[in-house]
Amino acid sequence: MAITKVSDVPELLAQARQNPQKSFPAILKLATSEDPYEREVAATLLVEASKKKPAEIVAEMIRWAENSNPNVRRTASEGLRDVGRKQPELALPVIAKLKADRILYVKKSVANVLRNAGNYHPEFVLKVCADWTKGKNSDTAWIIKDALRKLKTKRPKEVAKIIASGK
User: Fold this and answer.
1) Measured between alpha carbons, how far is residue 6 from residues 9, 12, 28, 38, 98 in Å?
2) pLDDT (tens digit, 9 = 90+) per residue, 103-127?
3) Domain harbouring 128, CATH code
4) Burial of 125 (0-12, 13-18, 19+ CB in 10 A)
5) What element of type H or E holds 63?
6) CA 66, CA 9: separation in Å to the nearest integer?
7) Are 20 and 53 a contacting pair, CB within 8 Å?
């Protein structure tokens, strides 16, 4: 049976919320799936678990961010959507490991975590993006530009300066 939504795996969701360490192998299996729905379920399980145990989820996602499989790296970022909104500094070690990822699928997720964080913590996102421009990496530059899309309307001068400094 295909797993297409979190409600298809209620036991795994309960386990992830209570004892994330025990749930990581099953979530990792979903993250490596060829089925995009299963991969999205993996990310959503991590989002839900991170609402209860953010530090434990982040600690594991730091490891997943180094995985050779881009689906796992994308899940490491995507699974931190809630953490990124509420405590972006906690998500930073994970997305920092992914900031120069060459895979568009991963880059989009990292940019999305930053963009969402920018709605609640614009100063944090502006600082991270400004710091990341110093690396002069084209993949990082893509993430920065995409991450700052929404802040561009609210903070045009600061965003323009960051984008220009990355070139």
Assistant:
1) 6, 9, 14, 9, 26
2) 999 999 999 999 999 999 999 999 9
3) 1.25.40.290
4) buried
5) helix 54-64
6) 26
7) yes
Q: Judge contact between 39 and 30, C-beta under 8 A.
A: yes
Q: What is the mean pLDDT of residues 43-65?
A: 98
Q: Is 41 helix (H, G, I), strand (E, B) or coil?
A: helix
Query: Does residue 32 sit within a domain?
Result: yes
pLDDT above 80: residue 1: no
Kindly state whether residue 3 falls inside one of the protein's structural domains: no
**Cα(91)–Cα(77) distance, rounded to whole angstroms?**
8
What separation in angstroms does the CA of 163 have from each of 51, 123, 136, 146? Answer: 33, 15, 11, 10
103-121 core/surface letters (b: 16 or more CB in 10 A; e: else): eeebbbbbbbbbbbbbeeb
Residues 6+ positions from 38 with CB-CB distance below 8 Å: 2, 3, 4, 30
pTM above 0.90? yes
Closest-CA residue to 70 (of 111, 39, 47): 39
Q: What percent of the residues of the chain are helix, what percent strand, and what percent coil, each to the nearest 5?
A: 75, 0, 25
Residue 4 domain flag: no
